[in-house]
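Recall the central idea of this unit: under ordinary conditions, the amino acid sequence of a chain determines the structure it adopts. In this exercise we apply that idea directly, starting from the sequence alone.
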Amino acid sequence: MHKQMARFFVIVVLQMMMVVTMPAGLFAAEPVTGTVTTSIHGLVWLDVDGSGSPDQTEVTVGNTPVFIQRLDVATTDATMTMVVYTDEVGGYSLEGLADGTYQIWAETNSDNIFYLVVTIDAVTPTATVDLPVAAHRIFMPTVMR
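Accordingly, the structure predicted from this sequence is:
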């Protein structure tokens, strides 16, 4: 029992000596923080059941345009809509955005367009926006009698 206590004491003393004798340059004087890149990213999928959330049975949509438009610019400024395309697994990302409010949507051959609005700022520099798109186009012909 005394040998175990003696070993424990020696280990503790050695660890304390290592901490005390560490060079001062190994510790940062201030917390190290990285630059956070502002971005909007997400997933586009075929919302077959209309639930608004991706299910395991629903497929993602690759090579589809995703439109991102800034909403909080003055009316005299030109409103620019940015377009990015989803990758082969339905994901998209746009980085380096200025702080502001953005509207995001994806279009397919369906008549339904799903818009989402997010705000990017110092508190929330990134936003995940998953976009459901309709899996089918509703066609209702006009019947004349």
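The longest strand covers residues 39-47.
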